[in-house]
Amino acid sequence: MGLVVQKYGGSSVADAEGIKRVAKRIVDAKKNGHQVVVVVSAMGDTTDELIDLAEQVSPIPAGREFDMLLTAGERISMALLAMAIKNLGHEAQSFTGSQAGVITDSVHNKARIIDVTPGRIRTALDEGNIAIVAGFQGVSQDKKDITTLGRGGSDTTAVALAAALDAEVCEIYTDVDGVFTADPRVVKKAKKIDWISFEDMLELAASGSKVLLHRCVEYARRYNIPIHVRSSFSGLQGTWVSNEPLSDAKDQKVEQAIISGVAHDTSEAKITVVGVPDKPGEAAAIFRAVADAEINIDMIVQNVSAAATGLTDISFTLPKAEGHKAIDALEKAKGAIGFDSLRYDDQIGKISLVGAGMKTNPGVTADFFKALSDAGVNIELISTSEIRISVVTRADDVNEAVRAVHTAFGLDSDSDEAVVYGGTGR
Question: How much is the pTM?
Answer without folding.
Answer: 0.87
